[in-house]
Amino acid sequence: MAIRRQAAEWRNVVPQGDRKVKPTHPVLGRWTLDDETAGRTYNETIETVGINPGDVVGVFTGGIGNNLMTSAHLKATEMIIIDSLACWPPDASVNIFVNSDYYFEAPDYSSVSGLSGYTVPFPEPNEQNIFTFESFLEGIEPPIVIEPESTWGVYYTVEQSTFDGSPTRDGQIGRVFIKYLLIDGADLLLANQMKDLGIPITWTEIQRFRQDLIRHGLMADIGDEAFDRDLIQKTGVTTRRRQLP
Amino acid sequence: MRNLVYNWVLKPTTYGFNAEDWPQAGIPFSIFTGPYGSAGKINREPISTSAQPRDNWSDKQIAFLPLVPANQFIVINSFGSTPGVLPLPKRVNACRTYRYTFELKIPVIPGLGQITELQYIESGRVDLARTKDLSNPSAQSGTSGPYNGVFSNSAQLKTILEDFYNQFQSSVSVSDTISGNFRVFSCTVDFTLYGSTQPLPQIVVKYQQTSSIAYLFGSNIITITPTGSCAATIDFIEGVKPNGFVNLTINDTQYYEDPTSRPSFGISGDAAPFPRNVGFKIPQYELRPNVYVLPGQSWDVQYTVMNDIHALNQYLEYLDTAPTPPEDPAEFGTFWKFAEVFLSYWIFEDAEALICQKLVQLGIPVLPDTVDWYKQRILESEGLDWDTYEKYLELMREWREMDKKREEAYHKKRGERIRSR
Q1: Secondary structure (3-state) at B169
Q2: Cβ contact (<8 Å) for B257 and A6?
Q3: How many helices (H) and strands (E) does chain B have?
Q4: Which residues does residue A4 pair with via DSSP β-bridges, in sequence order?
């Protein structure tokens, strides 16, 4: 599994009383009878945590919704290509950070909140019938390359206060969706080489580069064989050149 | 090569809430060999010449995880599952008790009647029980059922009806009166329904008035097809979303992991929905590149439900018994589709599987197009020495050019409506 298509999804929905759940999505609807006389309606066991304008929430370790155990840090043998982002509600925005740098920034290089749900909504279709903006239908072009041993994450911000309480519709849940390629193993070597050569790192380009390498290997073998023939004629040695000490 | 699909469906059709029919939240299970939905093991009719040797998706089950044999190559192309997050149930008021009322008349003298056939029809499926035809007492063919159907009083008739209809969640009541020369049996059969989408049952009763006249003129079987009506309604809780995730497993390795390299549940139904409804343009998630399953590897598709259906049922049971329930009592409905997973994959066999291996070696994606193309190249160059490197180079050059042209044409045609990466 040298190149794997991965995805991560963050949802601002947790069992009542929890602000965050680790390390994956929570089980919802776990109704418990805590007060027989007062009762407790089914929907009230689920809640979304209110987020105010100006709050910056890290979707991996921000303490709201489903979180990871640790921050996302790539091993020395891993590379990530983020090629699609999406979020909800429409006035929410997402920005990628790698180590200490933000990916999306304003023309004057000041900070911006990033891609909004109006541009890249999740999911599609959704209750407001907002669709992905044309220039992002093929994802982020060029994709965001996160190199080995980098720490990365996604920040989520909102323009208006989000729903706070027991949601009654999926559309009341804040969400972030990140689609990426995880490259490791031998393909990481290819990706590194491509980066050095200035070739965009996408899975189609990696595939082409791999074909090229195989072709070049075959060409080298052909040249090798021709050289061997000369060597045999001149010296009588029958060992292939590459096998000589 | 074949483009195959697998469609797993969880739509319980047993009566009432059976805990074993519903998956535990947060625990992945196989859509091939798991105990739930159409993967669950159920008793099946034996294959016979009169029955089609196949099941529809709602009855599909396979016994063991798919293991790719040496002469095959599998490419998993795409998948999708039921979308939705919140386990918000729909409260549907529907018929709980469906009632049939009918009368059977038999002459007071000799005062005997016989049920010759009882039918229960649901969704076109007919269950029936027959008894011996009294007009031809020696006939044996076509007889079945545990009783002979003869009755002379309401208690006997009630027993006969109960013996058959009680297996379909019914209750029977019978009373009789004398009207002229006839004894009239008034029968009521109440069927309990367990969901708003449960097909309404139909019944047919065939009986015989036994009298000397009946014997003289042969069979006098009377067929009753009563019209049913709803006698009581209830609120059914249905339409709960599964909040499910799909994961692929090759041997013992899970395909999906979270950004910290820990195994994850996979892709949600919102990211890769199935079915795709009106308004749908493109999936947020597509399995590109495809996943190859090589010979000797086993593979599995695991589904995880994150909404706790068992807890919902417990809550509904509480509503039925609580002294001051916060909501109206309701019943957990069955006969509705809870979750679905759809899988599309290619299977290449024999020589084509070998071609797949070769394509992998050459760094060419394994698709039906590429396999066909490679096969054509082999046939065209029959008799050539295939060990020459030049031939491989030529092949790869051809493929590169063809791929480039195809991609240009594809983009031209589809414009921006694709996500190729």
Answers
A1: coil
A2: yes
A3: 6, 19
A4: A182
Q: State the average pLDDT over residues B269-276.
A: 91
Of B308, B322, B399, the CB nearest to A27: B308
- Put simply, whether B362 touches A (Cβ < 8 Å) is yes
Kindly report the three-state secondary structure assignment for every residue of B402-416. HHHHHHHHHHHHHCC
Torsion of CA A117, A120, A121, A123, to 10 degrees: -150
Averaged pLDDT, B51-66: 64
Q: Are strands B331-332 and B228-238 parallel, antiparallel or unpaired?
A: parallel
Count CB atoms within 10 A of the CB of residue B355. 22
- Residue B358 in this model has a pLDDT that exceeds 60: yes
A44-48, A57-61, A218-222, B134-138: lowest mean pLDDT where? B134-138
What residue spans define the domains of chain B? Answer: 2-89+239-348, 92-234, 350-421
Alpha carbons A22 and A67: distance in angstroms, whole number: 5
Digit-coded pLDDT (tens) for B280-294:
666 788 898 999 999
* Other Cβ atoms within 10 Å of B106 Cβ, number: 26
CA A8 to CA B106: how far, in whole Å? 73
pLDDT digits (tens, 9 = 90+) for B108-130: 887 888 888 889 998 888 888 77
Q: For residues B347-374, give the mean pLDDT.
A: 92
Q: How many CB atoms lie within 10 A of CB B337?
A: 15
d(CA B313, CA B320) in angstroms, rounded, equals 11
Domain boundaries, chain A: 3-183, 202-243
A83-97, B138-152, B367-381: which range is least confident on average?
B138-152
Give backbone dihedrals phi and psi of B159, rounded to 5 degrees, phi first: -60, -40
Instruction: Give the closest of B25, B273, B284 to A179, CB-based.
Output: B284
HSE value, Cβ hemisphere, 13 Å, CA-based, for B215: 8
**pLDDT tier, B84 (very low <50, low <70, confident <90, very high otherwise):** very high
Is a pLDDT exceeding 70 seen at residue B400?
Answer: yes
Nearest CA distance, A90 vs chain B (angstrom): 16
Q: Please, are residues B180 and B170 in contact by the beta-carbon 8 Å criterion?
A: no
ipTM of predicted complex: 0.87
Contacts of B413 (CB under 8 A, 6+ apart): none
From A25, A31, A203, residue closest to B288, measured CB to CB: A203
* Nearest Cα residue in chain A from B389: A218
Strand runs labelled E in B225-294: 228-238, 244-250, 253-254, 267-268, 291-293
Give the span between the Cα atoms of B56 and B52, in whole angstroms.
10
